[in-house]
Structure formats: structure tokens, C-alpha cells
Amino acid sequence: ACVSFSFSSGCDHQRQENLDFPGSDVAVLFSPDAEHCQYLCTQHPACLFFSFIRPDCTVDNRHFHCFLKSTPSGQPTVQVAKQGITSGFSLRSCHPDPKPCLSQVYQHVDFYGADYRQLFTADYEECQRACTHDPACQFFTFLTDDFTPEKYRYKCHLKFSWPVPRTPEVVAEAGVVSGFSHSGQSHEHLSTDCEGKLFPKTNLPGHDIESLLAASPEHCQTLCSAHPQCSYFSYVGNNFKCYLKNNMAEMVAKAEEGVTSGLPTHFCQLVNKCAMKTLEGINLPGSDLRFLLVNNAKACQKTCTEDPNCQFYTYTIADRRCYLKRVITMPAPPKVTKLANAVSGFSLRNCHY
């Protein structure tokens, strides 16, 4: 039978079961189900449609793989009937919630990796509550009373993925201005504003847990503040490297030109946020949603702030192009696998029943 799934440029929520859109991949990620995969597609800057390999698929063993796809036309070039695969389209034109409620719980599924804390709980519901009440927790895996080895039964693993935008590239370049959206960075559970603490011309050597690219010391501070294991950070200006560090015992400072260090803030809203800074002479390449022509960098900043999909931008002065950009910030397990007597799910912080 000929199977076809027509697409208009409007909002299309439906997902088609047992249909594959082969080829045209822009990224491959892990998802526990097709709904989560569709949200990943919606948040990915280039994704227009997707195919998800369900755990019941018998013709392809890449279970839980979420293939994000794009074509110039926005249409899949090929549509093939295939058991165990669900396909659909980005929800970007539907004005989706940037922080979707992910209430589904997955039996016999492990969200492998990304652990930052473990505890023992009576059941998966209590594990999910622990995750929901910990601002750093994005998802969890709980090992039930039937799990083997027996010594790991009732263990609750709290897990982290980045809820704030990371810039995949940061490049010094004349004639460009970059910055962040002034909306969408705030945390509704934090009512108090604070300045945070930066130490100019100071390095805090050693104890690195992760290094990322950041556009400014304030951006690095935002990343450290989001990470549950970041005690403090050092930012190297000439290569835009942000070093997140973990040492709760001591903080040994060393004077060093070109390095700014600082402390995270977990319980108040940073007001000196990277969002408020305009970064002259810095390009944030890639992650483009679209571009438009505006008269100046301030207008580009305003356009980004007013677009709910935009998280950061780059403005090129010579041709007046304003590039609106975003990355995935929803909870995204680094790996999803089958595991007997494990239960996985997400924080319910974004679920307002």
C-alpha cells in the first residue's frame, strides 16, 4: 500500500506510526518515546521532521534512537512504511511550551549516564518527587525491588542535562555583535535577585569536571550555576574556555592575567547575567533558526528577545543580518536503553496540574 503523510507549513501535532522518513539526518539523539523525540526536533535549530525507532521495532535494533531531519523543502523526500518506527514534524510553528511537561514514566528503561546524585527511595514515585524538588534534576532512573544485583534495589539515580543554552562555537571576529535573549533565562522558583561573585585576573587551578565554550565570564557563571556539581569556575578570555570545577573542601586562588573566576549562584536570580551583556567582536556561529535584516544590534537583541524560540543571536554590521539561534535545553538523556526492573522518567517541575 502507498503510505503518505502530507505536510503543510502550519502546525502539525500528529505523529504517524509505522512510517519512516529515511535519510536527510541532521542529528541523532536518544529519546524514550516519539513524543520526546518530537520535542527534541522542535528545539533543535535545524530539525523540520523526525523518525523515532520504538522499542517494539523488529526491523531495526537501534531502539530509542531519535533521528532529526531536514530538507530545503521542509518535506521528507522519501516516506516508507516500516513497522516500529514513528515519524512526524517539528512543532515550532505551534508556539510550543519551551519547558514541556514530560509526565510519562518508562518501565524497564534506563536513562544511562548523567548521574550526579544517588539515594534510596521506597518506590519510583518518591524518586520522581526527589527529582522534581531538586532544581538540578532533569530526569531519573529507579531500580525496583526485583532488580539484580539485589544490593542496588530501591536505588534512585538523579540525572542532569543542560537547561541553559550552551554556545557550540565562540569566535572572535570584527564587525559582529552577539548576545542572549533577555527572556527565558529566568528561573521562576527563584524570587531573590543577586549580583553573583566574579574574581578578575584570578585563576582557580585544578579540579576540572567539564570544559565548555562560553561567550563571557557571565555566561560561564550561568553554566556553573546550572550544573549541580560546579563549586566554582575559571574563564579564559582569549580562547573562550569555561572550566567548571568541583572541590567543596577549599578554593585556592592564583593571580593570572586574562582569566576571570567566580562562584555559582543556586538560590537567587543572577542580575548581571550574560543575557544583559552585548558582546562586541564575538560571533556565535551555527545553531541558526533564521536570519532577517535589521538596522542595528539593539534591534537584533529585541527581535531575539521577542521570539520565544530564540536564545541567542549574532548581528553582522556590514550586511545588517540578524541571525536568531537556539540549542536544545529540554531534558535530554544522553542514552536510553532497555533494562529489566528499572523505571525512568522526568522531573515534574514543568507540569502544572
From TrEMBL:
Keywords: Disulfide bond, Repeat. This is Apple domain-containing protein. InterPro entries: Apple (IPR000177), Pan_app (IPR003609). It comes from Lates calcarifer. Residues 11-94, 101-184, 194-268, 274-351 form the Apple domain. PANTHER family: COAGULATION FACTOR XI, PTHR33946. Pfam families: PAN_1, PAN_4. One of its GO terms (biological process) is proteolysis. SUPFAM superfamilies: Hairpin loop containing domain-like (SSF57414). One of its GO terms (cellular component) is extracellular region. SMART domains: APPLE.
